[in-house]
Amino acid sequence: MNFLRNLLAAIIGCLIAFGVILIMIVIFAGIVGSSEESVSIKKNSILELQLKLPISDYVGDNGMDPFTGAFMEQSQGLDEILQAISVAKDDDDIKGISINNNFMMAGLAQTQAIRKALESFKENGKFIYTYGDFYMQKDYYLASVADSVFINPVGGLDFRGLSSEVLFFKDLQEKTGIKMEVIRHGKYKSAVEPFIANEMSEANRTQIKELIGSLWNSMVDDISKGRGISSADLNIIADTLGGRTPEFAKETGLLDGVIFFDQYEQKLRNALSLGKDDDLNLIELQDYVIRSNKKVIKSGKDKIAVVFAQGEILYGEGGPDVIGQGIINEAIIKAKEDNDVKAIVLRVNSPGGSALTSDIIWREIVLAKEKKPVVVSMGNVAASGGYYIAVGADKIFAEPTTVTGSIGVFGTVPNMTELAADIGINAEQVGTNKNSVEYSVFEPMSSEFRGYVQEGIESTYDTFLQRVSQGRNISMAEADSLAQGRVWSGVDAKRVGLIDELGNLEDAIAEAAKMAELNDYGIKKFPKYKTGIERLMEDLGGASAKVKQEFIEEEIGSEAYSILKQVKSAMEQEGVQARMPFVLDIK
What we know:
eight-stranded mixed β-sheet; alpha/beta; six-stranded parallel β-sheet; 22 helices
């Protein structure tokens, strides 16, 4: 009897659950449908560029998915932003753009790509105005493309040059008794330096200084053109903090006006020649994306496939924020075997990760290159493992502000011997053969085990050099001279021969079309990620973990939480790593 009662209860529970899901589907479909119908652009409108979400190169939404945009998105696609600006350029209803954005959550190369698209937008005689309560350096870099830049009278502008901060954990390890055993190759491969030292090595200091110097020079060059201020004067303004108050910023030429937001809105009205009673039509970017996504800028039976590889490189399937051999190789194979696809562009935005996964993806790129041209476009960062997978292509493009190179490998192994002794833990091992007990975190690392790991590091480094030598058509000795884990900006990478051209994704696509001898072509984007409803179910399942993470960060503070994440990431790394030589926190 109990069995039947429980069975009936389970059946009823399932029916209720399915009913709830069905109702949710209908509601969300209605929301999406109504939102699409409500997006109408009036004549004499202004596109409001307010970037509220973190920016990814690609979010992988399926345009046929009725739930796309119905859920709380965690990021916004750079490809959609650039598409919207490009469509708005030729949209007679859009007369200008208003940038109203603070604390932009994007990488430097992504910001540079948006800035370049805005420069193109102005070529059609349309205006760009920008307003901010406070401009961080990256926000101002974007804003400097505008015809006029305004700020709140009690706001501020941060313009002081770039800096980078690296945290060191050697003393923390000694105090806790938990340490990271480090094996590496490359004098600049300093991803592991925080675990073996208390201060920055001269080699690391040199490469960081040269890197951020090159990035800063690229920013200053663009700001100089946008504002009509010489690079020398901009550096003087940065050195003297000449933009630290709105009044100073206006006097030095960084800004055009110090006004309140209602006064800014009046300037927008004046730019449109509106009367007192005329409505100011501001179109939010999120709404305009719905319209712009329906516009096909490039068309044709022949296609160029754009494969987006973004995030840390880890062994496995991968996803929107993780590069795994599963999802990326599947995308490359689909593009390779699609008869309509005549060329492939691989967009790489990654600090690296698993050397094994990098090599698996590299091999698939080499195989694809045998059938059709493959061009790489580098985003914010394509370093170490990110460069590894890029070097198999026919040609490599990078933004001037891309961080790349970092040809080197390392391994880290956690050890808790001292902690175990302090708290009274003694571990004993029993094995059948001499090396059957490979390693225990509760015992000191043996010289034999360290030797085996070092052997693997050296072998992987040699393989990495071979890939670079083959891909860039240089000798192993030349590859080694550019390696040792050193990082380069896009500008410097072009100078030393690690990339072929400076340019954005559109430039890489144009080169791929040229190599495939295409005049008219469309774009196919890969991979396709999970649908909106699938992501909703996952988000509901992972809500508890997300709440816990947010609670911890709130309790211990964002700085301490950042340290915790770095240590946790290092502890979880498996196998030989080909990743950035440091956590690049540019301020």
